[in-house]
Amino acid sequence: MPSPTELHDSLAELAEPVRPTDGYEGQVLRRARRLRARRRFAGAAAAAVCLALVVTTLRLVAFGPAPQLTASPPDGPFLGWPAVGEVDADLLREATGVWNSAGPHTAVRALVAARDQLLHSVVVLQGYDQRNSPRLAFFTSDRTAGDALRLRVDRPAPDPVTTRVVSLVSPRLTGPAGRAGDGFWDTYAIAVAMPGVSTVRVSTTTVDDEMRGDPDRAKGRFVVEAAPGATAETTTVTGLVRPAKLFARWRTAFAVPGDGGADGDARGVRGKVVRRSGDQIVVAIPGAQAVRPGQLAVVADGLVGRVSEVGRGEATIALITSAGFTIPAHTNISNVPGSVRGAGGKLVMERIPAGDKMEIYEGNRVVVSDPAQRDDHLGAVTVGRAAATKATGADSVELTPAADLARLREVSIMTPFDGRSGD
Amino acid sequence: MRARYGPLLRTAYLLCGDRGRAEDLVQATLAKTVVAWPRLQRSENVDHYVRRILINTFVSWRRRRSWWEQPLGRLIEGPAPDEYAAVDQRDWLRRALDALPARQRAAVVLRFYEDLSEQDAARVLGCSVGTVKSLSSRGLQTLRRQWVEPGAAAENEVRYA
């Protein structure tokens, strides 16, 4: 067996005759040049592939915020948005005729002229009235008169530069002008948004299963949706944009309160909260002639209180949790009646009749009728939700207020329809 | 380059068992060294780096069928006449080295020809000291078996490189 020394010697003896051949330096340098060139080529190719991948990825996949919406240039005092829908000439002619029957209109152009499953026909027109004021008018079918078009609201045209969506939320869109449809369920929202908006979503706090999360697909910038029990005050119109790229996320372009004002609708008079003292707030309502004691003050989430006093340009509102606040109420849909009373910071529904169907479960929505509406159920305002399931045999249950009374900045005071359309 | 070419060539010969391939291996190693020279100038142990390139290039070439001749079959060697014992012994050593797997062969050459310590051999081979011990031990065992019984080894299948 060889020792390591013997093995070393043998290996040295084996390798000893090996001698370098001439010219190896040149060969090494040539190989080094080739190797450098290969590496440069490989590096350049890899960089090109990476660049191509990055460019392709950036073109296909969305990173960062979606591009900002670009407003269409205004069409004089009107919105310069292209018309939505089939823009049926007969429908346009009919709508223009209806509008002209209240007085001649000129330079009439369509914003929407579409057939719809819910409202059958929807037309939105812009034009000058006989006093040369730019106006915006909504028309929908009257189901009780063979789908004849009816003028629902005639408003001043909105600011053509800053407006991103126009909408109409009302229970008075399916029958004769000024008359509500068949009850609670017959309230609808129409919304048309500026070009570039992928989809418009209408959500309302009066419906528990309001849509949330990303929409599955772009529905376009014009929608008609059922909004049971909703009013403009409880409705939010959201415009969403999704770039045409893979994995692009929806971006909210705007989220604004709905607009109301159809003939016959209660009107919300907005007032900023200027003072708060104990269980009362004072709101500024400059020039609001229609505000009276007893009217309801609401925010999008629900009832805030009731006007207790009206002064010069101000209204005092007693909050729902104030001692002595009492108002008839009923549970939503199940219609269990009772009376809601403020109990010094708390809210209790009491005087609930005994009976089989007089159960109230935790989370049930309790609403109050709005005296500004012409119906107990239309535009009923959520006052709160049952904080716990009513005990068997009990005639009261504690409620959690729907509105955040600690953070009130602006409220709407619900006033009855005054006979003037839209203004 | 001139000072190291000869020793590198001899080490490469022990690794390859073929003079042409040894030249090829050393030139490839030195070409890589030239390319990396701007970086290596700041390094303290260039020899160690060059040796490591040599071993890595050898091991990776052995893995490549295109460069390294692979046996197409088994050749059974007959007993050779014992006329030139020294020549015969070198020939047996070369064949025995050829029969070793690449990393065992590299470990044997580094440890018993280059006289590297186990730690240095481990650094060159890029493995642990324990692996070097194992590789060189198994390589040495194979060599000893063939060294002692060259006649008997002739009866075994010999794998040509």
UniProtKB/TrEMBL annotation, chain A:
The chain crosses the membrane at residues 41-62. Residues 280-414 form the Rod shape-determining protein MreC beta-barrel core domain. Pfam families: MreC. Keywords: Cell shape, Membrane, Transmembrane, Transmembrane helix. The keyword Glycoprotein does not apply. InterPro entries: Cell/Rod_1, Cell/Rod_MreC_2, MreC, MreC_beta-barrel_core. The keyword Nucleotide-binding does not apply. Belongs to the MreC family. This is Cell shape-determining protein MreC. It comes from Paractinoplanes pyxinae.
